[in-house]
């Protein structure tokens, strides 16, 4: 299932652009303000499939969604916060998961904690439910869309205190063809808060991704790798990025479940470093940029 469909670059200030140009004159050809990407329209066959198969399944799932009885509600009190929140996101009440998050904010729970300790593990929980056939496609799709909307809504508050970036730019995406981009989207929120110029995927093909890094300057390209099914494609994609990138010293960062489970993938894929902590990723990326500069 695809979690994120919009790609975007945050606008930079004139000062940021000037400072960036002074640090690296090769950036002077990049137009400002930074642009905004939007995905290409899906093929007609995909649209037809969504209309004739996916949407009817979601509607049917909503109609059949059970109403929790008092006994079930009492049992839920014994579940973990993630399990209770997941149950709300899977149920028929569209407002319930939003209200749950609002209540946490009202109790003083930091937005960062909601991102990392609630939304992220809930997304992983949905993945487990899907893999074990404990719930169906329509229910997981609907629940993930709710998580995505909560993350976006929370991000509007999360970035009231966004930092002033120094002009660094990062592209965060998944391997083209993968479906799980929720983790990448969450990491992007922390880069956005730190003031980075940001572009996010997913992209329809490696060609689209390579063309993007060829035409626009990126200091960092980060991949979230959820499984080992497309490692050959990832390795080839990294090679193409290094070969065709406008920034010949671009830093490549890997993250995600597959990389955390197999740290050796960083070297075997031809990347520069791994990041396992969304909150630390922007600072780690700055360190990598300095390291790449010192190697010249």
Describe the structure.
Helices cover 55% and strands 7% of the residues. By secondary structure, the protein is of the alpha/beta class. A 5-stranded parallel beta sheet has the order 2-1-3-4-5. Helix 9 packs parallel to helix 10. The longest helix has 22 residues, at 137-158. The radius of gyration is 20 Å and the shape is globular. The N and C termini lie far apart (41 Å).
Low-confidence stretches: 1-23, 25-47, 61-76
Strand percent estimate: 5-15%
If helices are DSSP runs of H or I spanning 4 or more residues, what is the number of helices?
13
Output mean pLDDT.
Answer: 76
The N- and C-terminal alpha carbons lie at a distance of 41 Å
Sheet having the most strands = 5 strands, parallel
Strands of the widest sheet, in order across it, are 2-1-3-4-5
How large is the radius of gyration? Answer: 20 Å
Question: What order do the SSEs take from the amino end to the carboxyl end, as H and E?
Answer: HHHHHHHEHEHEHEHHEH
Structural class: alpha/beta
3D shape: globular
Number of strands: 5
Specify the helix fraction band.
Answer: 40-55%
Task: Name its key features.
296 residues; alpha/beta; globular
What is the strand and helix layout of this fold?
Layout: H1 14-23, H2 44-64, H3 70-76, H4 81-90, H5 96-106, H6 111-131, H7 137-158, E1 169-174, H8 182-193, E2 197-200, H9 206-215, E3 220-224, H10 231-244, E4 251-255, H11 257-261, H12 265-269, E5 273-274, H13 281-294
Parallel strand pairs: 1-2, 1-3, 3-4, 4-5
Helix pairs in contact: 2-7, 4-6, 6-7, 7-8, 9-10
């Amino acid at each position: 299932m695809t979690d994120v469909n919009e790609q975007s670059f945050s606008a930079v200030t004139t000062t940021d652009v000037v400072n960036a140009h002074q640090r690296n004159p090769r950036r002077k050809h990049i137009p400002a303000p930074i642009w905004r990407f939007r995905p290409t329209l899906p093929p007609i066959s995909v649209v037809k499939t969504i209309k004739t198969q996916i949407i009817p399944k979601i509607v049917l799932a909503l109609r059949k969604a059970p109403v929790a009885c008092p006994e079930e509600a009492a049992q839920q009190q014994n579940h973990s916060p993630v399990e209770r929140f997941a149950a709300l996101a899977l149920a028929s009440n569209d407002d319930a998961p939003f209200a749950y998050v609002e209540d946490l904010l009202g109790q003083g729970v930091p937005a960062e904690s909601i991102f990392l300790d609630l939304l992220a593990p809930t997304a992983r929980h949905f993945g487990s439910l899907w893999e074990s056939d404990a719930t169906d496609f329509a229910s997981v799709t609907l629940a993930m869309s709710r998580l995505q909307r909560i993350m976006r809504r929370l991000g509007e508050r999360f970035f009231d205190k966004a930092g002033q970036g120094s002009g660094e730019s990062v592209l965060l995406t998944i391997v083209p063809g993968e479906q799980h981009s929720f983790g990448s989207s969450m990491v992007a929120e922390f880069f956005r808060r730190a003031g980075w110029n940001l572009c996010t995927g997913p992209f329809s093909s490696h060609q689209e991704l390579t063309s993007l890094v060829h035409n626009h300057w990126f200091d960092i390209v980060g991949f979230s790798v959820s499984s080992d099914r497309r490692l050959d494609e990832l390795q080839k994609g990294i090679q193409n990025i290094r070969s065709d990138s406008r920034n010949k010293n671009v830093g490549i960062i890997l993250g995600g479940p597959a990389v955390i489970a197999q740290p050796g993938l960083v070297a075997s894929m031809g990347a520069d470093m791994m990041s396992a902590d969304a909150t630390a990723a922007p600072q780690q990326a700055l360190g990598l940029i300095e390291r790449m500069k010192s190697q010249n």
